[in-house]
Amino acid sequence: MVGGRAGAGDRGGSKSEVCEALDRNVGAMTVRHNRCAFCFADSEEFPLLTAEHLLSRPVASSFGIDRTATFARFDEDDSQIRWTTVNGVKRKCVCAACNNGWMNALEHDMGRVANWVDAGSAELRTGELDVLAAWSVKTHLLLCHIEGRAGEFGDSDEAVVPPASAARAVYERRFSDLDGLVLGLAANSSDTDFAYEFGTPGRVSFGDQLRGGRTCPVSIVSVGRLQIWILTPLPLDPEVRVADGVRAAAAGLRFEDLTAMPAIGNRASISINYRADWPLG
Q: Residue ranges of the alpha helices (H) in the chain?
């Protein structure tokens, strides 16, 4: 199915070290539907979509990441390595009003999450959890477009199902509606301080029948010392298993209690089991 990995070794990692740490990545895709991925404004309202960076300047600053660091991206069969910078990973899929408005504010609010990470023993408060969940959805949806061909959903059988309902909930600040997401946390133990793994779970089943995973895109993002696991299954509420040690994101959690994981997460460790009677089965 769809998969992607990338990482930046800005704390001393050389190109060869990054190459050894990374593998499969799909190439860049073209967004074919000219509609904002969050507010759903179409081209008549906003003639030009704007590019949203996967890692913004405010978040990079808060987590101590150099956006000019070399960034390796691999195609799906490892036949091509493309070198860029962290700042070079972006996608035109949001309108100017979203990009320059609430999304910009959200990027600055991530400084509160960075402070929680740095504090170590501080408990994650509800407001910080809301910011973390919203930013995780935003970043996950962007990866769905960059790596998962979400902009071609409806036209391509290879496109992942974009988490449109979650995106709209973030846009409208309806954080309670994000409860159907699977959001987990770990600690990034590697020198690589920005990396991601995107694709589909290692196993997806409906009852005892195996199925493709495009109904449940997965993003595992390491930003500084924090690692975020986010899944957006459709239909909601399947049985989910992730890697041992990943903690459910919840108020009261302390960063010092998170399990150390490599920067490049392992989505093959994830299994999803939907009820056998779901229509998509």
A: 15-21, 57-63, 96-100, 102-119, 126-146, 164-171
213-257 confidence digits (pLDDT tens) = 788 899 999 999 999 999 988 776 788 889 999 999 999 999 999
Shortest CA distance to 266 belongs to which of 211, 229, 224?
229
Residues sharing a CB contact under 8 Å with residue 60, sequence separation 6 or more, in sequence order: 66, 67, 86, 194
Residues spanned by the domain of 202:
3-26+33-274
CA dihedral 62, 64, 69, 73 (to 10 degrees): -70
Examine residue 193 and state whether it is found in any structural domain, yes or no: yes
Inside any domain, residue 279: no
- What pTM was computed for the model? 0.83
Instruction: Give the integer Cα–Cα distance in Å for 217 and 6.
Output: 16
What domain count does the chain have?
Answer: 1
